[in-house]
Amino acid sequence: MSPPSFDRVVLITGAGSGIGAALARRLAAPRTALMLHARGADTASRERLAAVGAECSAHGADCATVHGDLAERGAAEHLVHTTLAHFGALDQLVANAGHAQRQTLGTLDPDTFNEAFAAMPGAFAALVKRASAALETSPRGRIVAISSFVAHRYRADAPFAATAAVKAAVESLARTAAAELAPHGVTVNCVAPGYTRKDRGPSADNAAVWTHAAAATPLGRVAEPADVAALIAFLLSDEARHITGQVIHIDGGLTLG
To answer: Which of 11, 67, 122, 208 is the most exposed place for a label (fewest CB within 10 A)?
Structure first.
């Protein structure tokens, strides 16, 4: 349970950009404590996370940051330990860190496959295992994991062999966690975005990529990170207390067919 000074303590992985950063901004408010994570592989990554933290602090949240490569053994547990040590509690966990890789099954190499599993379902399982005791004592215990449409839409012209597998694994683990934590009032859900605009990376400024993605989406546009953040924020809210074990698609109709 959160200390009296906070209404809730939230750990968000992958908070330096995109959906994670948008969620942090949306949740930032007085009496909210945010532990924001990014891999922190270089100076630019650390600076981006610091900027998100500063913005959230300006909106009244109590923010701290932590870095770590979730593919490394012990990194996920370290994030939870750091949150508990810094804020004295953990009420809500958002497992957002991850990346998509276009690869066919025929070109998939074992190292890439193993690293993807370690960084996403492996890290998610470790986060939940380490955080469960704290979440079980919270009146607002919530877990949200970010999946992807690629675990539900398979096309030879848009192959995501490793990413589809690891996101499907995350969804399965989330359902297991939902069943195990339900007696303690903790909800566990997945959000599966469709094409979502990026604010960094090779495709961020490639207009042709986003035009193609919008054309492939029945609603005719791609999601903004804030669109996905709004759904996650709802699942963290008291209004969503009776929703658990679900995979909720926010993809503009991409997985209709």
So the answer is: 208
